[in-house]
Design goal:
The chain is an alpha+beta fold. It contains 1 helix and 8 strands, in the order H-E-E-E-E-E-E-E-E. The termini are far apart.
């Protein structure tokens, strides 16, 4: 009896560990509000906190980024810069450069 119970538990554990994660419906994904500041202008993006890369198509050179919070975001610049912003706050992009990709997740 004990060995069959143990066998069933191991089988269930293995099945649950190998199951693919269920994607979160788009209606339940939190968006992180990001403001990109340049020397003469700024722009705003609302980025899903879905741990997926999202392209940034604005060619403006960015010198700082601020966030309304709730997410952790990684940014990738056209000149090879990698930047990270956790939750609410801001960061300096140095050297200033256009950004090409952002990836956010829930903080």
């Amino acid at each position: 009896m004990k060995s069959s119970t143990l066998s069933i538990m191991i089988t269930l554990l293995a099945a649950s560990a190998s199951a693919a994660p269920t994607p979160v419906p788009a209606s339940q994904v939190f968006n992180v509000g990001l403001t990109f500041n340049g020397p003469e202008d700024s722009y705003f993006l609302s980025v899903p906190a879905d741990d997926a890369p999202h392209p940034i198509t604005n060619p403006m050179s960015v010198s700082s980024i601020s966030s309304n919070g709730g997410g952790e975001c990684s940014f990738f610049g056209v000149d090879g810069g990698n930047f990270f912003l956790a939750d609410a706050g801001s960061l300096v992009v140095g050297p200033p450069q256009a950004l090409v990709l952002v990836d956010c997740d829930i903080a």
